[in-house]
Specification:
alpha/beta; D-Maltodextrin-Binding Protein, domain 2; 3 domains; 5-stranded mixed β-sheet; 4-stranded antiparallel β-sheet; 14 helices; 15 strands; about 35% helix
Length: about 375
Amino acid sequence: MRRRDGLHPMGVLCFLGLALLSAPGVGEAQVAKVRLATSLSPPSLDSIVAYVAAEAGIFRKQGLQVDVVEYRGGATALRALLAGEVDITSTELQNVVRLQHEGKRIIYVFDLVKRMSMDFVVHNDVLAKNGIKPSDPLDRKLQSLRGLKIGYTSPNSPSDVYSRFYLQKAGLVPGKDAEMVSVGSPPSLVAALKTRRIDAFQLTAPTSTVVEKEGFGTVIIHGRSEEQTRAAIASPLSIIASDGFIEHGRGHPRTSGTYSKVLGKYVRDEHALPLMDALRKMTLAPAQRLEARVPAMAAKGRVRVGADADLTIFDPATVIDRSTYEDATIPAAGIPYVIVFGQVVVDSGHVTKARAGRAIRAPVRSP
């Protein structure tokens, strides 16, 4: 929200910053207009939060009319803030410090430093050579960083600071026991790891998952805490889904373990959310989220006459994930039958030869 004194509030988690700045007791008749900048390249978690908050009506409840303005990069969004084209954007802490030293009147509203999810990715060849597995103890994984070339986006960026933190935690000296290489943008980090210019890097999703999908790197240290995962699963704003896959026998354990882990660990064992809420998040909610753009999804996520006959039969008392980083193909326990388009694809816990799945695509839009 632009202040009358010309100050630009700015926060990493934009919609929380807006909520903090909104006046208490603002009614629908007193709507404050706000222009919020998001970055499209690379996609970031704070950009997603802005869209989720808008759709959930959080801005409206605070008496705010938010116009989300999309920019191609974080630097462009920051320049738009300084030029007065937008009122709020997200940026890294060091940019705020630099601008304040330059005399720019910037207000830093909310900080994600304690909430960031930084994944440490290492090239698969390096892991094989050093005999390191993602399931190894943290101390062993940290010690394996000795002698590696670790890439980061830019000096003093989170990818630089957090990588140095891990090295120091292992008793290693950055620049001496492990080479630190400034590479540039997240896509540049991915390319550098793929070509073995670097051995590892640390960055937030989706960059880390891109590497795993392409099959040349593996996340060995996850920055997200169990508390954050549990809070996300239980949140009324969240939908549970997975982009996991198996290729050449390799993949992420979420491929076969996402839904069974939620049902077994978070519903049955930890009571983080009720069973029916979990089922809605996995079935109806994703279908409803997509059906406006993909009409075929209106026949998914429901058990009713006329809907697609996609059914999973599970035992709430025994369902649990069993897949690992070493073998992501291990099927979940407690799921004896799966039916896709009326055909049994899992029978008594065993995958059949039926291949009943069909691609679901959105209709092509005219230019």
